[in-house]
Amino acid sequence: MTAPLSDHIHYQDHQLHIESLPLSIIADRIGTPFYCYSEAKFLQNIYRCQAAFQRFDIAIYYAVKANSNLSILRLVQQAGLGVDLVSGGEMLRAHAAGIAPERMIFSGVGKTRQELCAAIESAVGQINVESQEELVLLASLSEQFTRPVSVALRVNPAVSVDTHRHITTGSKGNKFGLSMEQVVPLYQRYADHPYLNIAGLAMHIGSQICTVEPYTNAIHKLLELVTVIEADGHTVEVLDLGGGFGIDYGDEQSLDFEVIAQTIASSVAGFEGRVCVEPGRSLVGDAGVLVSEISYVKAADPCPFMILDAAMNDLMRPALYQADHPIVPLQTNLSDSVRRYDVVGPVCESTDTFARDYPMDAELVAGDRVAFLCTGAYCAVMSSAYNSRSIIPEVLVSGSEIRLIRKAVTPSMLLEYESQTDALD
């Protein structure tokens, strides 16, 4: 595995830096473990994405589920992106970040009545409906509020993607979206509804996809539906094509913005409506690191265990779907020899394992620090207090400026929610 370093996360004088700061300085100030993000890298990714898609007039909506920290969302707002939301909590965060409701898309397979009411009341720009049952409920609620609602029907195009089975969302058997056969009848049924505007079609076929073929196949299926719908006398105003563009986790596999933008533009060349995409990981994933300290190097056969103070409650992806994150030392001039380790955390689960038989500096000892790369997406947002551990802090670096953008949520703070019990009448 090759460490995917960059101008913003790099070694200088044998020390791992984020922008102009050694990560060891931040570790000395706030302790470990912690997440740290490069503002410049995040913005660079956004600008590259905008340059690739906007020349084809393809709108960009940041997928908030990748990293929903309020400071990250404020940067999204300042850059002029819209947002894709999958919960009422994410909607609340988007509002708090100053993102206009018309720049919000509300997705998600199991939206509650309360969440749909909140979306209608705040006049979000688009609701991506994922089932006939949801559309029935939404129609009823729109009549109660007497407010117009713009809807896209999320289609499950049943395409195969080369990614982990737990992060596929557009193949047959997934819980997401409507089948191809359901779409046209729903368009017909609600075409004249007084408050629902069935504006278009949406899809999201999965995550960490590194080839264009699944997108071209899925878009082709959506366009087949567009042809049938428009022949029936209805209009398709928007195609929401989701995200899932892969990044390099050290295997040199990724999907370049220019490549996928050109592919999408070519695929929808005859479509006259609006087109949008929903990148998340590809904007923020490689802008973040998780810094941890070695608690023990435990002798064992066949590999010694490198036991860290970070655990699966801090970084869930390896336990959840066997994700690999490059692990590098904060200091590189210890020795020239290499040793293989099983890198684990302290949680009482065998799945609290980050890597097996992983090659690192042979002279690493307790007290040394390491960093997990590419942890800006689907990492801090998945963290928990399992084993009554702290939910660790998040830091944003801009040049030489350090900002604590999420304080640690300590066990004593969590106890406050349980210290008094209230009887429910």
Automatic annotation (TrEMBL):
<dbReference type="GO" id="GO:0030170">
    <property type="term" value="F:pyridoxal phosphate binding"/>
</dbReference>
<dbReference type="GO" id="GO:0008836">
    <property type="term" value="F:diaminopimelate decarboxylase activity"/>
</dbReference>
<feature type="binding site">
    <location>
        <position position="317"/>
    </location>
    <ligand>
        <name>substrate</name>
    </ligand>
</feature>
<comment type="function">
    <text>Specifically catalyzes the decarboxylation of meso-diaminopimelate (meso-DAP) to L-lysine.</text>
</comment>
<feature type="binding site">
    <location>
        <position position="281"/>
    </location>
    <ligand>
        <name>substrate</name>
    </ligand>
</feature>
<feature type="binding site">
    <location>
        <begin position="278"/>
        <end position="281"/>
    </location>
    <ligand>
        <name>pyridoxal 5'-phosphate</name>
    </ligand>
</feature>
<comment type="pathway">
    <text>Amino-acid biosynthesis; L-lysine biosynthesis via DAP pathway; L-lysine from DL-2,6-diaminopimelate: step 1/1.</text>
</comment>
<feature type="binding site">
    <location>
        <position position="244"/>
    </location>
    <ligand>
        <name>pyridoxal 5'-phosphate</name>
    </ligand>
</feature>
<dbReference type="InterPro" id="IPR022653">
    <property type="entry name" value="De-COase2_pyr-phos_BS"/>
</dbReference>
<dbReference type="GO" id="GO:0009089">
    <property type="term" value="P:lysine biosynthetic process via diaminopimelate"/>
</dbReference>
<keyword id="KW-0456">Lyase</keyword>
<protein>
    <recommendedName>
        <fullName>Diaminopimelate decarboxylase</fullName>
        <ecNumber>4.1.1.20</ecNumber>
    </recommendedName>
</protein>
<feature type="binding site">
    <location>
        <position position="349"/>
    </location>
    <ligand>
        <name>substrate</name>
    </ligand>
</feature>
<keyword id="KW-0663">Pyridoxal phosphate</keyword>
<dbReference type="InterPro" id="IPR000183">
    <property type="entry name" value="Orn/DAP/Arg_de-COase"/>
</dbReference>
<feature type="binding site">
    <location>
        <position position="321"/>
    </location>
    <ligand>
        <name>substrate</name>
    </ligand>
</feature>
<keyword id="KW-0457">Lysine biosynthesis</keyword>
<keyword id="KW-0028">Amino-acid biosynthesis</keyword>
<feature type="binding site">
    <location>
        <position position="378"/>
    </location>
    <ligand>
        <name>substrate</name>
    </ligand>
</feature>
<dbReference type="InterPro" id="IPR029066">
    <property type="entry name" value="PLP-binding_barrel"/>
</dbReference>
<feature type="active site" description="Proton donor">
    <location>
        <position position="348"/>
    </location>
</feature>
<feature type="binding site">
    <location>
        <position position="378"/>
    </location>
    <ligand>
        <name>pyridoxal 5'-phosphate</name>
    </ligand>
</feature>
<dbReference type="InterPro" id="IPR009006">
    <property type="entry name" value="Ala_racemase/Decarboxylase_C"/>
</dbReference>
<comment type="subunit">
    <text>Homodimer.</text>
</comment>
<dbReference type="InterPro" id="IPR002986">
    <property type="entry name" value="DAP_deCOOHase_LysA"/>
</dbReference>
<keyword id="KW-0210">Decarboxylase</keyword>
<dbReference type="Pfam" id="PF02784">
    <property type="entry name" value="Orn_Arg_deC_N"/>
</dbReference>
<dbReference type="Pfam" id="PF00278">
    <property type="entry name" value="Orn_DAP_Arg_deC"/>
</dbReference>
<comment type="similarity">
    <text>Belongs to the Orn/Lys/Arg decarboxylase class-II family. LysA subfamily.</text>
</comment>
<feature type="domain" description="Orn/DAP/Arg decarboxylase 2 C-terminal">
    <location>
        <begin position="34"/>
        <end position="376"/>
    </location>
</feature>
<dbReference type="InterPro" id="IPR022644">
    <property type="entry name" value="De-COase2_N"/>
</dbReference>
<feature type="modified residue" description="N6-(pyridoxal phosphate)lysine">
    <location>
        <position position="65"/>
    </location>
</feature>
<feature type="domain" description="Orn/DAP/Arg decarboxylase 2 N-terminal">
    <location>
        <begin position="45"/>
        <end position="284"/>
    </location>
</feature>
<dbReference type="InterPro" id="IPR022643">
    <property type="entry name" value="De-COase2_C"/>
</dbReference>
